[in-house]
Each structure stands twice: as structure tokens, then as C-alpha cells.
Prior knowledge:
binds flavin-adenine dinucleotide, TIM Barrel
Amino acid sequence: MRVGNLYRNQAGPMVSFEFFPPRDEKAETGFYTVVDELATLNPDYMSVTFGAGGSTREGSYQAVKKMMEKKLPTVAYLAGFGISPDEITGVLDRYKALGVETIFVIRGDEPRNDDFTPHPDSFSYASDLLGFISGRYDFDLGCAGYPEGHVQAESLEKDIEYLKLKQDKGAQYAVAQYFYDNEFFFSYVDRCRACGITIPIIPGIMPIYTVKLTNMLCKLCGSTIPAELKGRLDALADADAKEVAALGVEVALEQCKDLLARGVDGLHFYTMDRSGSVMQIVQQLKEQGLLK
Ligand SMILES: Cc1cc2nc3c(=O)[nH]c(=O)nc-3n(C[C@H](O)[C@H](O)[C@H](O)COP(=O)(O)OP(=O)(O)OC[C@H]3O[C@@H](n4cnc5c(N)ncnc54)[C@H](O)[C@@H]3O)c2cc1C
């Protein structure tokens, strides 16, 4: 399943779900229950992340393999941080043998593991990786974009220049880091278009699952929590998990409706390997005729 091609020829906005591979055998049962539940929504594709430094190499491969065996439309990720060109071709050859046709290419971050030493020939940036892969393989390729700028970026302007480089090196679509204010996304898309970036840029949606997780991830990823939302989250500091998840569904629904009304090419959900909130959001958008 070629995602670049799908976005180019879509009949309406697409839906995709992102998963982390299960951590161990014990986590597998729960993981596939979530995957199977979300598969009933007929997403256009489901993707499996890849731990930088190769930390989830085998787990990611096994999850992709099983999802391909289940005939689910599957995209494999590759985070190149610290791994050698030979290791990269090793990973890609195995994905190719499974019949995977789309690879989402990211640099990844330095693992928080003191024992990790990056391979001296590893790639510094996602654009280098994309150039390496597009010169050797026939995969459709995706890459990441950052509506509020990447946390290490010199400036948003420079970050957008590097997104253009990723397009020039073979990326056929970009998935955006999540955000809670749609104006960041639309202003980013306008700036990207002005810079000559023509590939589809797909908004990433992170439903609020817990207050703690939201605060922690937003800090890590540089995503702003707008003041109004922050106030609502603070008011739920002592609330039970169901109440917080209900707010998360409400906020994401409003956000998705606005994105769809303004003509986005798709919605990419960061599921955090949970099905409940995403099920509710997508089901409601379908019931309201906003998604196919
Ligand atoms: C949708 C999505 C999925 C993700 N999935 C994963 C995953 O599966 N595994 C994982 O480990 N991480 C994942 N990440 C996180 C990602 O790996 C980190 O954000 C990482 O820090 C940057 O990756 P990148 O591919 O955007 O890097 P790059 O595009 O290489 O950018 C990294 C930084 O370098 C700068 N830069 C880029 N090119 C150049 C250049 N030529 N010269 C100088 N500076 C440059 C950029 O401005 C940016 O600050 C994901 C992120 C997103 C948005």
C-alpha cells in the first residue's frame, strides 16, 4: 500500500493510526486487541513506530509482520539515529520482503541510554536518510513536519527549509507533530507552500488521555497547550481518568471538525496504543458524514 500515491489520488480525507510496537510478549495481547478494534474503523493505513538507535528494531518488525499477515494496510517507520547504512538496508530489506511499500523516515533522537554509541557512518538528518533510501529502494516515503518548529530547530523558517530538503530527497508526504491550536497548523502549511513545499501535510492528532501525559509530552515535543485548554486541564487535575478522556474526545472532535472543514487531506491519530478515545472520535466524525 503506497501512501504517497493514496494521498495524491484520495477521494476524501484519509484516516491513519499510529502505534508503538508492544514492549514485550506480555504487552502483545493488549496491543493486538487495540489494533483489531481500530481496524474495524477501516483506516486508510496503520503505522508502527521505530525506536531510535534501533531499540525497537525487532519489536517493530514483528508488529509490522503480524499486521501485514492480518492484511492490514501497514506503514513501517525507520528512525535512523545512530545506526549504520548497512543496518538501515538490513531493516529495509526485511520490510521489503514482507511486502511493505511505504516507509516513514525520521531521524529519531539520541537514546537516553549511556551505553549507546552512534555508528560513525550514521546519518545526521532525516533528509540524508531519505536521499540514501530513495536512491536504493522503490518505497513511497513519508517524513515529519513541525507546525510549531522542531524543538532543536534554529528557527521555524530554517525548519521549513529542511522540510523542503526532505521533499527534494524523496518524501512524498509529511505528517505533522501534534498541536492543539489549528492556527499553528494552517499558518505552517501556508509558509511551507510559500517555500515550494507541495507534498500533502497531514495534521497529527493527539487526543488528551491523561493530564500528566499531556503536560509531559507537550513539553518534550514543544507543542503549546493554549491557555483556555490549560485552564480546563488544570480544573481536572484531581478528576478521574474517564472525565479527562471525555474532555480529550470533546477537544479532539472540535479540532478535527475544524481541520476537515478547512480541507485537510487526512487526519493522523497518535493512538498511544489505546483504542477508546480514537474509536469515539472517528466514529462520531463518520456518523456526521465528515469522514468516509
Ligand atoms: C509523525 C511523527 C512520527 C515520529 N515517529 C518517530 C519514531 O517512530 N521513532 C522516533 O525515534 N522518533 C519519532 N518521531 C520523533 C522524531 O524522530 C524527532 O522529533 C526527531 O528529533 C527529529 O526527527 P526528524 O525526522 O524530524 O529530523 P530532521 O528532519 O533531521 O530534523 C532534526 C533537527 O535538525 C534540523 N535539521 C534538519 N536538517 C538539517 C540540516 N541539513 N542541517 C542542519 N539542521 C538540520 C531540524 O530543523 C530539526 O531541528 C516522530 C515525530 C513525528 C512528528
